[in-house]
Amino acid sequence: MAKTTLSFVCQNCGAAYSRWQGKCEACGEWNTLAEEDTTGATSAPVSLRSKRKGRTFQLESLTGKSIDAPRLSSGMTELDRVTGGGFVRGSVLLVGGDPGIGKSTLLTQATSMMARAGHRAVYISGEEAVAQVRLRAERLGLADAPVQLAAETSVEDIISTLSEGTVPRLIVIDSIQTMWTDTVESAPGTVTQVRASAQKLIRFAKKSGAAIILVGHVTKDGQIAGPRVVEHMVDAVLSFEGEGSQQFRILRAVKNRFGPTDEIGVFEMTGLGLREVTNPSELFLSERDLGSPGTAVFAGIEGTRPVLVEIQALVAPTSLGTPRRAVVGWDPSRLSMVLAVLEAHCGVKLSGHDVYLNVAGGLRINEPAADLAAAAALVSSLVNAPLPPDAVYFGEISLSGAVRPVAQTSARLKEAVKLGFGRVVLPERARGEAGGEAGLSLNTVGGLTSLVADIAARGTPRARHDTTRQDDDGGDQGRRGPRPAEKNATPARFRRQDG
Ligand code: TYD
Ligand code: MG
Prior knowledge:
By secondary structure, the chain is an alpha/beta fold. The protein contains 13 helices and 23 strands. It folds into 3 domains: 6-41; 71-278, Rossmann fold; 283-464 and 482-494, 2-Layer Sandwich (Ribosomal Protein S5, domain 2), CATH 3.30.230.10. A 9-stranded mixed beta sheet has the order 8-7-9-10-6-11-12-13-14. The protein has a 7-stranded mixed beta sheet with strand order 17-18-16-15-19-22-23. A 3-stranded antiparallel beta sheet has the order 2-1-3, with no helix packed on it. Helix 5 (155-163) packs parallel to helix 6, helix 9 (332-346) crosses helix 13 (448-456) and helix 10 (371-382) packs parallel to helix 13. The radius of gyration is 28 Å and the shape is globular. The termini are far apart. Residues 354-499 are annotated as: Lon-protease-like. Keywords: ATP-binding, DNA damage, DNA repair, DNA-binding, Hydrolase, Metal-binding, Nucleotide-binding, Stress response, Zinc, Zinc-finger. One of its GO terms (molecular function) is ATP binding. InterPro entries: AAA+_ATPase, DNA_repair_RadA, P-loop_NTPase, RecA_ATP-bd, Ribosomal_Su5_D2-typ_SF, Ribsml_uS5_D2-typ_fold_subgr, Rubredoxin_2.
């Protein structure tokens, strides 16, 4: 008699428990446990299955006949960049993203390009009817591409259909949460189903050599819903991000067995689908607010490509007991560190101010090289002094207040020159590497203190909300706009006098 094992599986992280409980101890989520049959079994009795003798198989050597064209270009440069040069045969990719961000659009475009290039490309939608997918393709002007289309959700049916004829080069499954296999009894969308379906599709990909793209939805906290377990099974995880209100979309590799994970692909959502953005700096800087305080241009590197992006800061007196620190697009702990260094070494007192930091264009920066640009934007906002509009900034700030050199100085400078910037503020020790970039004036800084003094000399502290307080330099705190140049502009001027 087959023994069915019922257990309670967290729909968020896949942890299994023998009893129901309100909170998953593995991921800390509440009310995510659902009853599932986790034997993963067919109807065959356990005793029979476990006694099956293992089949012997052929072991291969490292040399030998290699598969032709190991990588297959998608026809979209930005997508290829993120995958590391195209789809690898027999690999499985998971593309995650918020609903409505454009995953189906991106993959419809990719399959159409592949089909037009003469490959067998299949698009299986478990969410939309064939007519809806056709409608989208029509809108994208791709209706004539020989893509093979189906609206199916049964993994077994899909695999038997695709096993016939020539092996497809690309199969898109939109989305993995809608797939189900009859080897497990749980409902579609549950962790067990998603895992089992993904397993089957992955096995099919490895065996047939077809590249499979699984689409996965993301929950509000940024996790790929339910099938977080799938992340470990696939070869690559790409995340498609962007603000719904903005046109930019960024494709980022979160995991990649066959390529780098620091590359990004930039797209723009238009009425005719996704347009590739080959020069993202132009896009991120296109709506710059020239001449307003609190913005600095950061010369960053995303993967192999330099990207210039605006960092915006707002430092304003707080009305709260604990001032707010809000950051979008950058690491909050790096912001805390930069603020601490500004306070400890440069006399910039920010404990009475709310601090907001934003990376324009929806980009997310992970590089420590952004420290210097962030610090410049913060100080610029605090003293109400715009930074020179033709300057870019990069450099890592150490806890001692020193500005340390970062990698790829010359690539950053080249991009700055290309986009018409005339000035670079960079770490002193990077000067050697910066050497011969024509048309750029190099402004090297050894420590954060000198940068702060420099910016401070250009501006005046923001008006205080509490005008009864005495400023230590003579009560001109209400004045805005650049003050006359002062020789001994020490950062100490910004210290709050609270007592
Ligand atoms: P979609 O690819 O369906 O998103 P997902 O599969 O990630 O849920 O894209 C949906 C959004 O994209 C929708 O709000 C409309 C917009 N869109 C355009 O702006 N232009 C287009 O050409 C297409 C096809 C969609
Ligand atoms: Mg979709």
